[in-house]
Amino acid sequence: MSERCAVIGIGQTEHRESRKDVSLPGLLREALFRALEDADRTLADMDAIVIGTAPDMFEGVMMPELFMADALGAVGKPIFRVHTAGSVGGSTAVVASHLIENGVHQQVLTLAFEKQSEANAMWALSPAIPFQPQLVAGAGGYFAPLIRSYMARHDAHPDAGPMVAVKDRENGLLNPKAHLHLKQTLDEVKASPMLWDPIRYSETCPSSDGAVAMVLANDKHAKGCKNPAWILGTSVRTERTFMAGRDQVNPKAGQMCAKDVYDQARIDPRKDVDCAEIYVPFSWFEPMWLENLGFCEPGEGWKWTMEGKTRIGGQLPLNMSGGVLCTNPIGASGMIRFAEAARQVRGTAERHQVDGAKIAIGHAYGGGSQFFAMWAVGSERP
After folding, report:
1. Minimal CA–CA distance to 167: which of 291, 314, 289?
2. What phi and psi, each to the nearest 5 degrees, are found at residue 317?
3. Which 8-state DSSP code applies to residue 282?
4. Mutual orientation of helices 285-292 and 138-154 as an angle, nearest 10°?
5. What is the pLDDT of residues 227-269, one digit of tens each?
């Protein structure tokens, strides 16, 4: 690493079920101009543009980075597109940071987006699995058996998942940009329709339109900026969907990704991390990722959830913004986690701010729990 990198500007759209008031380029321009304003920069100051989104078939737009080059201010500049399924927003931020850390560029604009109202995500997420009956209906149909395996492996209390949904929806009420502003009791969540046992309707993420953007800068350009979020460590890890001996409940790639970030940042996840935004599209993934990312021992994640340790004000606040359970433009969801982590250490998270947050984690996963991206950010330059 020849340069240090910091987040100096963040912008998000309002996330909604359908943004019919803007085109896809218009949606991105909302986020990018808010990020540029936050950073006190213009498009002319950006050396390169790095974008990420979910598969082209989601919106039916092939290679959106080409038709939106003008709208993104990328004419005559390098533009890169990243794709790693649901983790793409996180991977995109990592790629953008590497361009700065390796001295290729000095200031980079990175964006992630999804306009799911113009897509058919249920169809796109229901692929035929080789040599098996076609029983999967959406992502939940794939992940439900993994959740049942987790519950059986650790004798988890069945209320742990619904309690995550209650907590994240309460957090979402504090975030004006969240898609869902919904207060539900535990009994109301448990009474919602069962979609994929044990996943109930109220334990699932919404389908959102939205975009997020960040301005990243090197030491020279970050100096003098108001409260930059310094990147302490980044990592991306991958494993195959199907292979002999693969543990999809606690994937090895996720463990490796987390360890790499902690080693780079020189932090102990159980002592030094003040809060984290982790990718939880179905409520039970909170306890599963708590264990996978090394915040607690295997079998302890669901207990943390039930003991309130992941609430704002708890031992390790998670998804203070409401998380993916409140906002889910799939291609942007990972970068929103990264951006919200940066907002925490910048002290700009407003009503969902964790007091005194100095180190935060942003995390994303995608595919069949096989693509992982993660970063650690801090309020002080390392």
Report:
1. 314
2. -60, 130
3. B
4. 60
5. 999 999 999 999 998 888 999 999 999 999 999 999 999 999 9
Distance CA 294, CA 302 (A): 14
Amino acid letter, 80? F
Distance of alpha carbon 189 from alpha carbon 196, whole angstroms: 14
Pairing of strands 107-115, 194-196: unpaired
CA 291 to chain centre: 17
- Reported as a single tens digit per residue, the pLDDT across 163-206 is 999 999 999 999 999 999 999 999 999 999 999 999 999 999 99
Ranges of H-type helices in the chain: 24-39, 64-67, 88-101, 121-124, 138-154, 160-172, 186-191, 219-222, 252-265, 285-292, 301-306, 330-346
**Distance between CA 38 and CA 226 in Å, rounded?**
9
DSSP designation for 18: -
Q: What CA dihedral angle connects 165, 167, 172 and 175, to 10 degrees?
A: -160
Amino acid at 219: D
pLDDT at 357 over 60: yes
Give the C-alpha separation, 310 to 330, whole Å.
23
Tell me the domain boundaries of the chain. 5-118+207-222
pLDDT tens digits, one per residue of 85-143 = 899 999 999 999 999 999 999 999 999 999 988 877 666 666 666 666 555 567 888 89
CA atoms within 13 A on the CB side of 349: 33
Could you identify the residue written with the tokens 């002080």? 380
Check whether domain 5-118+207-222 has CATH 3.40.50.720, yes or no: no
For residue range 14-54, list pLDDT tens digits in order.
999 999 999 999 999 999 999 999 999 999 999 999 999 98
Please give the helix or strand (H or E) that residue 217 lies within, else none: strand 209-218
